[in-house]
Design a protein that fits this description.
The complex is a heterodimer of chains A (259) and B (50). Chain A is mostly helical and 259 residues long. Helix content of chain A is 74%, strand content 2%. Chain B is an all-alpha fold. Classes of the chains: A mainly alpha (259), B mainly alpha (50).
Chain lengths: 259, 50
Amino acid sequence: MSTKHPFIVFIHKLGSAPHFYRIAGRLTPWLWAVFIVLAAIGTWWGLFRAPPDYLQGESARIMYVHVPAAWMSMLIYSMMAVMGFIALVWRIRLVEVLMISSAPIGAAFTLIALVTGSLWGRPTWGTYWVWDARLTSELVLLFLYLGAMGLYSATEEPRKAARATSLLVLVGVVNLPIIHYSVEWWNTLHQPASIGVKGNSIDPSMLWPLLIMATAAKFYYGANLLTRARLRLLKQDRRKNWVREVLTSKPIARNDGDQ
Amino acid sequence: MFDHSVYIVASYLATAIVLVWCALSPLLKTKKVRARLTREIARTGTEKSE
């Protein structure tokens, strides 16, 4: 007789909506708390403790919100693409819910990256906007997020909507290397990456607050994603017993396929 | 010397506004959805008992 590894059992359980709802509900306040602490430390460090840049002066402090937002815009889209692939191949409903719940958060980070980049561009380049390869491809990313959200909302049946959205997200992945390599492939106003796998050209006094803000952004994504996924599950499963259980706090006999 | 404060403040403010709005909107919606579903459950429960 073979017994399943506890981790496999945990993952299988996590795939069921009621279990996910319960676990996510317990986890979310902690993720918000860590985000608030890290964001407070990172903001204070970036605004008051980190030194000004030798070339750009005080305006370089915008980096502590702009760079983590830009990283998150690409990371969330990559996550959506992976989840979209899983949703298309294995058709796991929870993954579909997580994928579509990621889109508004990704769009928010992309908007922040564009707005703060524009505000940083004015004192350093002398203009708020140029149709530069990096800026334009980031704007295309915002349209991809909005397109995914629009396509999902336009289709009534959630499972069908998730499949169509997954396909769109997968097609849009082609934009990610364009964003990343745009500063190398084309002659752009945007500076090349200061942090990479080959090394950093940024001083530790500026790198630390940047990394703290980047970590805070990841906790924000986690907390917001779980909140949005729980809301979506509540709406999708409104006729199921587990939702009645959650809302009335009364256990109900399971015979409606709550998984 | 060019004063950058206005751009720095505007950047942090815009970030805060977008992040707070993006965090609060699902929380407020959840509250609304839970209230609506609870009302629905109470109503269907009453209908069944009648």
